[in-house]
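the two lines:
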Amino acid sequence: MEFDALLLSRLQFAFTVAFHILFPAFTIGLAAFLAVLEGLWLTTRREAFKTLYLFWVKIFAISFGMGVVSGVVLSYQFGTNWSEFIRLTGGVIGPLLAYEVLTAFFLEASFLGVMLFGWRRVGPKLHFFATCVVAVGTTLSAFWILSANSWMQTPQGFEILADGTFQATDFWAVVFNPSFPSRLVHMLLAAFLTTALVVGAASAFRLLKGRETPGAAESRIALAMAVGMICVVAPLQLLAGHWSGEVAHHHQPSKTAAIEGYWETRADQPLHLFGIPDRDTQSNHFQVSIPGVGNLIQNVPRDEVIVGLDSLERADQPPVFMVFWAFRIMVGLGLLMIALGAWGVWLLIRRKLFDHRWFQRFAVLMGPAGFVAVISGWIVTEVGRQPWVVYGVLRTRDAVSPVTTGDVATSLAVYISVYAIVFTAGALFILRLMAEGPAAVMTRPTAPEPRAPGSAMARAPDDDGEADDDPPIGDGPGGRL
Amino acid sequence: MNPDLPLIWAGAIALAVMLYVVLDGFDLGVGILFPFAKSKEERDIMMNTIAPVWDGNETWLILGGGGLLAAFPLAYSVLMPAFYLPVLLMLAGLILRGVAFEFRFRARRRGRRFWTQMFAFGSILATLAQGLILGGFIQGVTVREDRFAGGGLDWLTPYTLLVAVGVLAGYALLGAAWLMLKTEDNLHGDARRWAAISGVATAGLLAAVSVATLFAHPRLALRWGFDVAEGFSLDFSVLAPLLPIPLLGLAGLALVAWGVRKGSHTWPFVGALTVFLSGYLGLAAGFFPYIVPYALNFRQAAAPENALMFMGAGAVFVLPAILAYTAWVYWVFRGKINEETGYHH
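prediction for all of em together
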């Protein structure tokens, strides 16, 4: 395979977008969770809710910051690396992206300041309002970006002009394109699940330290909330995923064929549970299948023909292996999530949830499952769309910028280095906070006491005066808690 | 009568970029000044003056980019590849400084020192990159068949480097003036000194960039009535209507000088804003109606009418709302920041 600007641009986009999606996937749900916690605190005045809010908002602040900076990259990368895509389709897809900035980004960014730093500046109700606005903003952002992405999956409401550029004929049809409703629901549920799994894992981790550990009372509440959420949302997600799959079956048959590993166009398709799809032989190795249920899964009559990859030129087939396996990882994790939710609620009803160590270990293990499932899902949907950037209309290779391989290699190296530093540090800070648990906010950081000159610590700060091990005086950014 | 949508959107995007430049300008400026702070406590306060608003400020950059994409997709698709590497450097800088707000607070010992350095480094890198983009923009972009057709390093010339240093000085001035507005006592004194130094540097570099532009880019010079192609002649009738723009800049610099001398809290910032406004108007006067100098005007690059209309219908309501709640957030966080002022509880 030749490493040209196209391939490197694809790798770069995949890398930067995969890094970015982790944060919205987490913060959309977390913002809603925080709004619920603050609402509960305002109505019940139970300190535990406030403690939980103050704890999770710290993690939210770090995650949100990383989401913002990794998102800015994407809004420019459309131009730096995919300028032909924008030159041709900008008149259709551009307004959706502009609306995301106008209706969501400003809302989130502005009210986030009040949410994080405004405790002493606004009253509790106004602060609660700010939290709610941030939550609404994150959801609106998902609305627009999913709409834009869905249009790339199932384009409609446009015409192609003589010079090759696209023009909308009906923006309503563009925004509410066929795959948008199901994919929006699927993504929002994924975000809620991801958050619930993380909250559940962090709370279970705390409880594994023992009944009397500081923060245990709060962690019990959070674990119960997370378990309830997972129990309801995980099965719903299965339905939403199925809905999304049906839409793909109707509008993107090549994607469905790749997901299912169907090489052959036929009626009465089997369901392949396992296999190693191979593009060269146009078949699956080591296939394990259940005959006769493939059509059932797709919700079509058994005698209806389902298109296989053999209906496409080889050049028009998506990379099957990645799509096939990413899909199975996603579904497998989804089933585990359903099990986790059901088991958790069963234990909750029997009043054993807070002492069941095996369940808690399972919950900790499932903490990152949402992230893995989200990435897998996006691999299914984006790789499954290939070789098209706008399905059936514009090929990825015709969308790339007129830039040199050297330029893209440079930028990819820079992004990998910068993201490696930022991601490692961010993950470390978040994990450290989780390890401290909600107790961390109950013992507030205090300003370092003045020390007599010449005492050991007074000599400690080195040349730049930053070596102090205490939190910054006056609560630095993020230290308002 | 149909509204002139391309013109309205060109104006809206110009406004977004202008707001970005002054808003993120002062908070990038704070980052540029970070290495000169005397202590960790000073740096904490400096960061706290911008912590609640930097995210909103940076959103104007996303609107500038996203708006350009949506309203002038052709311009966006030409300009981004043209400035591939400076855009990359700008984004890398913005990432490093953006996460530093949280990370610097969370980190211990070495980590904190590292993120302090990254906050300054990222701010300086992003600023220089923006300067290179501006310089490259003034130089003009090679376009063939609606696509960028220049070289990958066209943006790197002595002229663009001069512009980049000029923007660095200008942002430092904005940052210093902002700190004079938001701090007191010792830090205010330091900020005053920084404002004096960066003010002088800004004035000098602004003059140098202006002169260099006249000689390096005769096309732009003609707009201002200077004909440098053969000898040197000045058509005053062309210059006269534009003269208020440089005069506004001079007034801004005078306001900075006077305010700094007096140790004023507000006027240096107002002066610095005026300088930027003048510089921006000066550029606009030189470029209009080009959106990709000197190849595409904003009408050629505009998105289809119905796309502009579709966005306009929402923007008419949303943009004023954004301006209103942004102003409200600044109002919430008004006043001086010191070690005791918590935004915190």
